[in-house]
Specification:
The protein has about 120 residues and is mainly beta. The chain contains no helices and 11 strands. The strands form 2 sheets. Strands 2, 4, 5, 6, 9, 10 and 11 form a 7-stranded mixed β-sheet that branches. It starts with a strand and ends with a strand.
Length: about 120
Amino acid sequence: VQLVESGGGLVQPGDSLRLSCATSGFTFSNYYMSWVRQAPGKGLEWVSTDTCDNGRTYYAESNKGRFTISRDDAKNTLYLQINSLKSEDKAVYYCVKGGGCYYDQPYDYWGRGTQVTVSL
């Protein structure tokens, strides 16, 4: 199993970014996928999840409206669109694979992360 994130970088407040997670080594469409981030000096924070259950998605309350998770099963790729970036969005963003289709099964694989820095 491989999860490779990309799309991070240095952006200004108010900008937008789309993070990607290219996956391989498993049947992507059969598993839920999540984004988790870690800000400097802080713990892991769940961002969003895209299940394989009729495309249901979930977001941390603080991210609703600015973050959009999506998946392309044909490309085995997970995305996270972040709009109106804020300084508090600065973090390493990890792509995480769930243990099954439904959200009740724990994560089993993590990518190495992509850094997002928001600064003037």
